[in-house]
């Protein structure tokens, strides 16, 4: 069985400041890792994914994430946030060959002017 | 954007009534999924399909059934709705990639309220 823990339910940050959203996972096998973003009243959009290879993954809208196998983490970062980044962010994991995703509970990123 | 539509987008119903939600895709993807999203729980998998007439249960399947008679349509049915099924329901589609993973694309969601 696999699980995902997003340690912060809410993260307030000032505009143009850097941000890190934390994600830890547990799985007995190799996994694929994803970050999705959900803007208010919308569906989920893929930000980035880790499949293999380089542990630093770059995504859309200036976001990046680093896969750390020893710490079983996949934290999301952005060096400078904007008001438009206000959204819910979900970390998800998939066992290789599995058919569904296991999601974390989400982190609400609140950008303060 | 992936061609996924969900209908209805909003529905209010009463306890004990049957409800069917529809997911329609134009991408010809093999896999389709139903998730529910609740505050403090993230998204949880209800059922999924890996082909026409091929379905399987997810983490929270009790009280739900699904059907897939065509590649493009995946129906989620609440046989007798309960207030605990008030939620936002998302459909997703995917196609297994060469590396063995499924990148899922999500529909806009259906907000269901059971009174």
SSE map:
The complex is a heterodimer of chains A (113) and B (115).
Chain A: E1 3-5, E2 10-14, E3 19-21, E4 24-26, E5 31-38, E6 44-50, E7 56-58, E8 64-68, E9 73-78, E10 87-95, E11 102-103, E12 107-112
Parallel strand pairs in A: 2-12
Antiparallel strand pairs in A: 1-4, 3-9, 5-6, 5-10, 7-8, 8-9, 10-11, 10-12
Chain B: E1 4-7, E2 10-13, E3 19-25, E4 31-38, E5 42-51, E6 54-57, E7 64-70, E8 73-78, E9 87-94, E10 105-106, E11 110-114
Parallel strand pairs in B: 2-11
Antiparallel strand pairs in B: 1-3, 3-8, 4-5, 4-9, 5-6, 7-8, 9-10, 9-11
Describe this structure in words.
The complex is a heterodimer of chains A (113) and B (115). Chain A contains no helices and 12 strands. Chain A is mainly beta and 113 residues long. Chain A has one domain (3-112): Sandwich (Immunoglobulin-like), CATH 2.60.40.10. In chain A, the strands form 3 sheets. In chain A, strands 2, 5, 6, 10, 11 and 12 form a 6-stranded mixed β-sheet that branches. In chain A, a hairpin with a 4-residue loop joins strand 8 and strand 9 (73-78). Chain A is globular and about 40 Å long. The mean pLDDT of chain A is 91. Chain B has strands at residues 4-7, 10-13, 19-25, 31-38, 42-51, 54-57, 64-70, 73-78, 87-94, 105-106, 110-114. In chain B, the strands form 2 sheets. In chain B, strands 2, 4, 5, 6, 9, 10 and 11 form a 7-stranded mixed β-sheet that branches. In chain B, strands 1-3-8-7 form a 4-stranded antiparallel β-sheet, with no helix packed on it. In chain B, strand 4 (31-38) and strand 5 form a beta hairpin. The termini of chain B are far apart.
Helix and strand succession of chain B? EEEEEEEEEEE
Tally of extended strands of chain B? 11
Rg from alpha-carbon coordinates of chain B: 14 Å
Q: Give the largest chain-chain interface (CB within 8 Å).
A: A-B, 26 and 26 residues
* CATH-assigned fold name of chain A: Immunoglobulin-like
Count of discrete alpha- or pi-helical segments spanning 4 or more residues of chain B: 0
The Rg value of chain A, from CA coordinates, equals 13 Å
Rounded mean pLDDT score of chain A? 91
Helix coverage percent of chain A: under 10%
Question: Largest beta sheet of chain A, briefly?
Answer: 6 strands, mixed
End-to-end separation of chain A in angstroms reads 41 Å
CATH class descriptor name of chain A? Mainly Beta
Contiguous helical run count of chain A: 0
Poorly predicted runs of 5 or more residues of chain A: none
CATH topology of chain B: Immunoglobulin-like
């Amino acid at each position: 069985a696999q699980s995902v823990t997003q340690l912060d339910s809410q993260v307030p940050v000032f505009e143009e400041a850097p941000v890190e959203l934390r994600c830890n996972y547990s799985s007995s096998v190799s996994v694929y890792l994803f970050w999705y973003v959900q803007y208010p009243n919308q569906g989920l959009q893929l930000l980035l994914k880790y499949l293999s290879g380089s542990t630093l993954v770059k995504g859309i809208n200036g976001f990046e994430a680093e896969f750390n196998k020893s710490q079983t983490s996949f934290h999301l970062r952005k060096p400078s946030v904007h008001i438009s980044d206000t959204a819910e962010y979900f970390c998800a994991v998939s066992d290789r060959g599995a058919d569904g995703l296991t999601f974390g509970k989400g982190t609400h990123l609140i950008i303060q002017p | 954007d992936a061609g996924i539509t969900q209908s209805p987008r909003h529905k209010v119903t009463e306890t004990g009534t049957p409800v069917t939600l529809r997911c329609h895709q134009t991408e010809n993807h093999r896999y389709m999924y139903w998730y529910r999203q609740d505050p403090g729980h993230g998204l949880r998998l209800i059922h999924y399909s890996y082909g026409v007439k091929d379905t399987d249960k997810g983490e929270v399947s009790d009280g739900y059934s699904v059907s897939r008679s065509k590649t493009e349509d995946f129906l989620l049915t609440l046989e007798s709705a309960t207030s605990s099924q008030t939620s936002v329901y998302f459909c997703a589609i995917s196609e297994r990639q060469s590396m063995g993973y499924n990148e899922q694309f999500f529909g806009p969601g259906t907000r269901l309220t059971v009174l």
